[in-house]
Recover the amino acids of this structure.
């Protein structure tokens, strides 16, 4: 890791013996735990408490006006037996996996390609980044018009291979959504991989070249393993983000055609704010939160956030 | 910091500073309410707030508010405009938060009734306001004998708009029965013209098909039973037959190929019609005004014509019945301050549906729901408006658009399932049982 | 197949620097073609946005989508600016700066505590943040709406700042923790030995050292806050409190839509960020390198 520490030799790993779980002989803690309070209050107050509220609301019937009325388990029964709920879960899963499958190789390759310095590459990187600068609703608007089957590029005026009602055909709309999401977010991950690739010491490549390894071999034996943590970080951000792809889909398709792009967050919004069934929407929201929690747990375990190891140990 | 970075930081600060300065200056200006645009922020502190929907006759709302503010600077009104998608959600959220506008825009019907029942809407007693309207128009906002809204735009029955140039090219006549409509499909397809333009992605343009067919086949009693939440009201055979006919039309290729991805808001459906890529459109008469604005030359040429929704051979319903929106309304918020109530009521009496206002609407070939409309239209010799008035006066029954006539939760189910019918993703039987299930919930 | 060319290490390795090895840059055709392909995929929509924003509404449906406008006009831009764009921009700036500042302030304190304090309470709190990482904000929107209303904050910018900051806390804390962990204990101890109090340690040591990481999270959180849509959708209503993403969406909802105007709005809303990006690009990459590159 690069830090600008004048006194410490660069590349030194620093002391890593004490993760938060490590037990030290009890001594006065160097830093007061009170400093944690603001973060806890903010996060607890505006994220955790509302989540609890959502769980509570899921047992009520409420249409947004007046006060909620206790309902017991009715909402849960309705939601869990509604095939639409499971359908939206399935669609969300498809989008999660699909966006990962599309974005990761693309960002990886682009990031590695852009890693070496040079004016041309820097310029390209700047252009690539524009896709991320637009807000999700802007991206949705642009593609909604661009893919208009009558007046956009997906119509008679555009290239033959694009001729299709991408957003209107239930069979292709999900693919279109995944690709548009990728278009929007690949720049972010490209940057991550670019940064990660720049960290790889040239000495590794030189050694490999001396040993006669070809470019492909070098890529798979050196670049990929060295990018392991970047892959984890990027994938974490991707998967975490995929649960919240509300804006883009809402503006692009509003969940349609039919149920084809009704992701779980959309389903929640439509149930709560359009059909005004806040109780049911809260049940769906709870499911959403549970999925998110499971994802968090899985990710932190896999990525070993609690363990700390330097990739450059041994160099 | 290195000098480059310092320079950059200064430059950024300058840009940000300039932006902020501009913003500060900008918010001091009075709201720009020209050309039907969104009201600019920076409104005054204690103005009465009025919510309006963009499109159709909205320029008249703007003009009326402007006139009021000029003549009554001591009782200012601020008009805030919204797009169609999500407006209803927003209104509900606002009312629930105690932040509703003093005058709220609505379609009447069951949705408004929910608010009335929850105590959010105040009746309008002033005969100066209520007496000027056609009774059928006020029906949608009359509950328990009290009138809860004032109509602010035009009578909008759903009709078939068609491109006469295209019809002449093909040598066809506009349809008078459903079967004739079906027969027209292959005729246009051969010429590579889409028979009917449909903005399927918005979903609500699909509703009139069901509304009209059910009415034509089974009469208004069918939907009345549904609104009354009678058990299994959706199982009436007229519903199933209507849905089957719709799917027949879809399968025959009656709709433009990519209808599922066309959103009405982009104006693409209208454009299909006036660019000659589609022959017909079943749509609220409002669209005529929209096309008049978007493609004035086309309308000038006289090629935009209309016929009522066709009759159904062997149907029990009166072919003169109409489906659509009798009007849109402004209703008074019961939680508004007395001052604001006074202001908005005076505004409704004085500026809404006065000479100027009515004249503006008529200029757009639209028909305001007032008793004096007929005479003024005859004077103007506007064929489309005359047709609308004729249809409205002759209609034994004017059915409010279905999604406004049932409560929001049922409406969401209706539009979603109907969408799937159009997409051929579900059968009429499945639709019926799904919608019957929403009745049980009452 | 893609290859990587020899990468200059960011961290100087043990070998002596001066030996300027000439990179054997074999023109990598597949990679070059691929990147150009992606370049066009990125540029075409952007080009379309700009070109459309210059069209007149009448010509929008008749011009070829990728062709140059037959009657170029700046009317759309005028219309967008007239309709209060400057106010929406200001709102977005206020919300973004506010949310990011709040998040970083709060998260830095937390991260500092977590790396230096090993008590169970602190460890549990860290686990809480880890768990909270993937909780989507949509799940909590209804109760948040209820809370904000009851607090009297409905339709204010503060209503946007607080929840946005709250949901950014977990990822920010985690990134900062990862970074702060690498600060060697000796530095802290040497400051302590010199008699520095906690606050001084924070401001003299931690703050300057964590600049790259702070830059990273500022950018990441900033982008999220700038583009936030659901909170503004539900928690604000009047045009005075509207932020850019919402304004864009409101534009498109009009029954008589003006697509060129919407595209002009898109351009104008992306412009500030683009300018900042052009100015601060090196900082951005350096920040992301330091913060994420492990």
């Amino acid at each position: 890791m690069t830090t600008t520490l004048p006194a410490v030799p660069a590349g030194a790993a620093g002391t890593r013996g004490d993760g938060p779980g490590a037990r030290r002989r009890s001594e006065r803690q160097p830093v007061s735990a009170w400093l944690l309070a603001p973060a806890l209050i903010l996060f607890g107050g505006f994220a955790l408490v509302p989540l609890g509220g959502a769980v509570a609301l899921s047992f009520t019937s409420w249409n947004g006006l007046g006060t909620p009325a206790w309902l017991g388990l009715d909402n849960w029964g309705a939601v869990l037996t509604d095939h639409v709920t499971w359908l939206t879960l399935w669609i969300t899963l498809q989008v999660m996996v699909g966006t990962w499958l599309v974005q990761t190789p693309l960002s990886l390759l682009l990031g590695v390609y852009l890693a070496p310095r040079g004016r041309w590459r820097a310029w390209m990187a700047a252009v690539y980044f524009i896709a991320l600068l637009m807000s999700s609703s802007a991206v949705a608007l642009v593609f909604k018009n661009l893919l208009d089957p009558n007046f956009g590029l997906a119509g008679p005026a555009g290239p033959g291979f694009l001729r299709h009602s991408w957003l209107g055909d239930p069979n292709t709309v999900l693919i279109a959504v995944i690709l548009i999401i990728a278009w929007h977010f690949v720049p972010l991950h490209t940057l991550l991989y670019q940064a990660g690739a720049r960290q790889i010491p040239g000495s590794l490549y030189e050694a490999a070249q001396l040993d006669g390894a070809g470019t492909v071999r070098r890529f798979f034996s050196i670049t990929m393993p060295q990018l392991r943590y970047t892959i984890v970080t990027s994938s974490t951000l991707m998967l975490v983000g995929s649960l919240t792809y509300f804006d883009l889909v809402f503006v692009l398709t509003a969940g349609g055609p039919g149920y084809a792009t009704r992701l779980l967050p959309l389903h929640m919004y439509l149930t709560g704010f359009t059909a005004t069934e806040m109780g049911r929407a809260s049940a769906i929201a709870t499911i959403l939160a549970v999925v998110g929690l499971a994802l968090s747990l899985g990710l932190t375990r896999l990525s070993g956030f609690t363990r700390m190891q330097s990739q450059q140990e041994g160099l | 910091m290195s000098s480059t970075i310092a320079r950059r930081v200064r430059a950024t600060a300058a840009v940000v500073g300039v932006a902020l300065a501009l913003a500060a200056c900008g918010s001091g200006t009075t709201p720009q309410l020209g050309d039907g645009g969104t009201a600019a922020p920076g409104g005054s502190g204690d103005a009465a707030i009025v919510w309006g929907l963009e499109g159709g006759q909205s320029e008249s709302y703007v003009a009326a508010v402007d006139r009021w503010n000029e003549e009554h600077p001591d009782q200012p009104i601020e008009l805030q405009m919204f797009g169609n998608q999500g407006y209803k959600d927003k209104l509900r959220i606002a009312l629930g938060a105690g932040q509703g506008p003093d005058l709220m825009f609505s379609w009447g019907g069951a949705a408004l009734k929910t608010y009335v029942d929850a105590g959010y809407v105040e009746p309008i007693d002033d005969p100066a306001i209520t007496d000027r309207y056609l009774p059928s128009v006020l029906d949608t906002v009359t509950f328990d004998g009290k009138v809860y809204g004032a109509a602010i735009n035009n009578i909008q029955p759903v009709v078939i708009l068609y491109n006469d140039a295209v019809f002449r090219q093909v040598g066809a006549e506009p349809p008078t029965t459903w079967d004739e409509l079906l027969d027209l499909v292959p005729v246009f397809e051969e010429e590579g013209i889409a028979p009917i333009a449909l903005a399927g992605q918005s979903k609500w343009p699909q509703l009139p098909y069901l509304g009209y067919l059910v009415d034509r086949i089974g009469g208004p009693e069918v939907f009345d039973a549904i609104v009354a939440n009678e058990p299994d009201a959706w199982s009436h055979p007229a519903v199933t037959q209507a849905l089957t006919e719709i799917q027949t039309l879809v399968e025959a290729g009656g709709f433009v190929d990519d209808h599922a991805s066309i959103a009405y808001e982009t104006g693409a459906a209208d454009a299909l019609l006036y660019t000659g890529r589609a022959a017909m459109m079943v749509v609220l008469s409002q669209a005529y005004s929209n096309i008049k604005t978007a493609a004035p030359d086309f309308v000038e040429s006289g090629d935009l014509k209309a016929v009522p929704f066709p009759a159904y051979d062997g149907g029990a319903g009166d072919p003169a019945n109409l489906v659509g929106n009798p009007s849109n309304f402004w209703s008074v918020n019961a939680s508004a301050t007395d001052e604001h109530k006074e202001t908005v009521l005076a505004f409704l009496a004085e500026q809404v549906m006065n000479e100027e206002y009515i004249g503006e609407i008529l200029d757009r070939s639209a028909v305001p729901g007032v008793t004096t409309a007929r005479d003024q239209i005859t004077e103007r010799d506007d064929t489309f408006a005359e047709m609308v008035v004729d249809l409205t006066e002759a209609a034994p029954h004017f059915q409010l658009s279905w999604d406004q006539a049932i409560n929001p939760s049922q409406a969401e189910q209706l539009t979603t399932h109907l969408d799937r019918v159009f997409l051929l993703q579900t059968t009429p039987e499945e639709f019926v049982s799904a919608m019957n299930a929403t009745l049980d919930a009452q | 197949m893609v290859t990587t060319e020899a990468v200059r290490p960011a961290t100087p390795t043990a070998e002596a620097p001066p030996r300027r090895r000439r990179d054997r840059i074999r023109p990598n055709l597949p990679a070059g073609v691929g990147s150009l392909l992606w370049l066009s995929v990125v540029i075409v929509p952007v080009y379309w946005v700009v070109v459309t924003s210059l069209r007149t509404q009448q010509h929008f449906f008749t011009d070829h989508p990728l062709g140059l406008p037959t009657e170029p006009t700046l009317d759309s831009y005028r219309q967008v600016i007239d309709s209060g764009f400057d106010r929406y921009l200001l709102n977005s700036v206020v919300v973004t700066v506010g949310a990011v500042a709040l998040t970083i302030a709060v998260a830095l304190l937390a991260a500092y505590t977590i790396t230096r304090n090993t008590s169970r309470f602190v460890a549990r709190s860290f686990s809480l943040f880890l768990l909270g990482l993937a909780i989507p904000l949509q799940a909590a929107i209804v109760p948040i709406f209820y809370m904000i209303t009851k607090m009297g904050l409905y339709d204010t910018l503060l209503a946007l700042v607080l929840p946005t900051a709250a949901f950014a806390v977990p990822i920010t804390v985690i990134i900062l923790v990862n970074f702060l962990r690498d600060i060697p204990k000796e530095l802290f101890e040497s400051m302590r030995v010199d008699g520095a109090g906690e606050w001084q340690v924070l401001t003299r040591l931690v703050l300057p050292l964590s600049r790259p990481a702070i830059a990273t999270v500022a950018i990441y959180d900033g982008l999220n806050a700038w583009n936030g849509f659901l909170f503004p959708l539900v928690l604000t209503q009047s045009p005075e409190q509207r932020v850019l993403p919402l304004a864009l969406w409101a534009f498109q909802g009009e029954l008589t839509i003006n697509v060129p105007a919407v595209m002009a709005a898109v351009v104008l809303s992306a412009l500030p960020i683009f300018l900042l990006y052009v100015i601060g690009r090196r900082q951005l990459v350096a920040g992301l390198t330091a913060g994420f590159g492990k």
